[in-house]
Amino acid sequence: MIGLVESKIVAAIKAAELAYPLKFVGSYGGEFDDDIGLVVRNFPGVWVTFGGSLNKPHGVSKDKQLVTARFAVVVGARNVRGEEATRQGTTGPNGAVIEPGTYRMLEDIRGVLWGTDFDLPIQALEPRDVKTLYNTRLNDMALSVFAQEYETCWIEQKPTGDLPLLKVVGMTYTDAADPSRVVSTDTVILNT
What we know:
alpha+beta; STM4215-like; two-stranded antiparallel ribbon; 19% helix; Phage_Mu_Gp37
């Protein structure tokens, strides 16, 4: 369910009709842990990741658990006008958004996600904490990155019967300087 909910969040943001284009919407893969200078090329952008879960027994059955899960939606913007503009954004004389700013992005995405369950057997998403990840300058531009957490829950049932065996593992190796460039791939067939 975790991967499915994350994918649905990404798809909902991609499908949203925002007043500004996003250069990137996708699953978070540690980009901010590497070179932030490379990541800013994808601003304004949105990254989605699973933030963790709390599992508790559900009812009297030992075969069911209530899973309360959090997902983080990370928004990032840059602006040469300064730190305030990265958060507040800029608009033209007619009020049209020129650069959204992270506050506007958080608000717009909250409007897309709040209360939706994606027609899945989960409780509708509810916004939770917002955290500042970056509020700084890089060379001649200001950066602003915030994470908005969303919470949901569902009931999981203990799997029954034989679980499928892992038979094949596929690996993709990418260039550290350019993660979009695939350097090599491997496939390992496991003896079963």
